[in-house]
Write a structure and sequence with these properties.
Elements lengths: L2 E8 L10 E2 L5 E4 L15 H9 L2 E8 L8 E2 L6 E2 H5 L9
Antiparallel strand pairs: 1-4, 2-3, 3-4, 5-6
Amino acid sequence: MPNFHTVIPIHNVDLDTEGQWEFSGGFVLAALPAWLRKQPMLENLSSSDRQALDDATHGFVVTYEAAGSALGTRAGRGRDPKSIQETKYVFKNGGVA
C-alpha cells in the first residue's frame, strides 16, 4: 500500500530541530519534512499562505498507509465512516474526528 501524509504546519514555535515528540493516533510534532516545500500543489496557495509555510519550521505530521486514494479509502464503521485522511486530520475540528 502507498504511504500518504498529513502535515499541519504550526507557527510561532522555537523547538529543537533534532527533537521529535510523538502523540496518539500516529501524530508526531517534528521539523517539517524537506519534501513538503517541493510539492507542486503549494503553487496554488496564496502568497501569504506560502509565506506562512516558509516561516514555519515545525508541524504535526502523520504518515499512514492506504489502499488506493487516501480520500477514497474508508476507515471505521457505522453509518458515516470517515476516510483515513479525515480521521488523521482530527485537529481541523478541534480534536474531533
